[in-house]
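Researcher: Structure prediction, please.
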Amino acid sequence: MLFRSQQFTKIFHTEIDANDLQHYRKLADEEGDPDAQRIMGNLYLRGYTCLEQDQKKAIDYYQRAAAQNDGKALHNLALCHAYGEGVPVDLGIAVKNFEKAAGMDIPEAIYSLALCFEYGIIVEKDAAKAFERHQLASERGCKEAQHKMGECYEQGIFVPQDHKKAVEYYELAAAQGFVDAEHQLGACYEHGYGVEADMKKAVEMYDRAANKGDPEAQFDLAVCYEHGEGVDRDLEKALSLYKLAAAQNDMNALYNLAVFYHHGDFDGIVDYPKAVEYYTKAAEAGNPEAQYNLGNMYRKGEGVDVNHEKAAHYYRLASEEGNPCAQTNLAFCYYNGHGVEKDQKKAFALFKTAAEQEHVGKPAAVHSLATFYADGEHVEKDTGKAEELWKQNARAGYEPSHLMLQIGRASCRERV
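Model: Predicted structure follows.
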């Protein structure tokens, strides 16, 4: 979500019983207390154990508090208009209320208004105004803005890149328990961005964010446990964390789980059906490595029936994302007519593209490309070019190319 504010959820981190609810309702309804009205709005907006969700009532309470110049309630009301919660979506009203609440020095409203200037929502895009407001909201203690300032300095958005300043802002937000900042701070410690690399500190920050349910942090922490970086190696813990992240459709976790089951990395037991299950989910989420591996499993019949059409389909998806191994295998599909109609021109083009990149399948792509040049298929015949490519492969230890050079030389001697 573009606009984020803990004003919506802050109250939910406190246990409320029927007596508390009665107390807030009395203050809100009988005494007109704006803080209580805003709290009642928060409760009705999301619903709570002892209160059924009713977004229209939430709006009513926010409006009553806002009418008494409660800036936080006004900001929450703006968010409701931004997302269509209890009222129709109306970004015009949302931005107008962001401006009013920002004028009351509400840090979250200043941050929301900064996003409007950053992305051109109703107002004209203005990088200077966006940064100025992000900075102001950060100074006022808005943790979302502090995290945003960290991103600005880390990525060089609005300002020159400065990893040390990025870390300073991430630390401010993390100190307030902002999960995105905790995760990002972990990455800074892992890679040594703005701080001295410290895997133990990285694990500490990843753990804090992972315990709050952040899937990216769960994934990064799982990697630490898998490889024993900053912690003792613990594959069972890694698998558990991958599963937590995968349950939230984290693409990388889905892929790593698939690899676990594909190669038996966890307990030595290969489970092809589970590998297919997780590769499929990761492939659907757009992971090109998963698409390529899934193509291989359909081609080989691992955990599924052999299906050349599906193999070619997944190779194509990965190829479009620039995966050179998939480009090589898709080229073979076109060359042999496996799962697709034979098309030598497409095969040549894919072999050529794959041969120009560094990857484990490069020798096969180079060898096949050389064959095209030797035979003059869909390219001008060039035996010199073919021999050059085969020599390149032979020096790298690719036996089929070495064999082709042997055959070629023997043929030449016979012709002589």
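Model: The two ends are 74 Å apart (CA to CA).
Researcher: Thanks, that helps.
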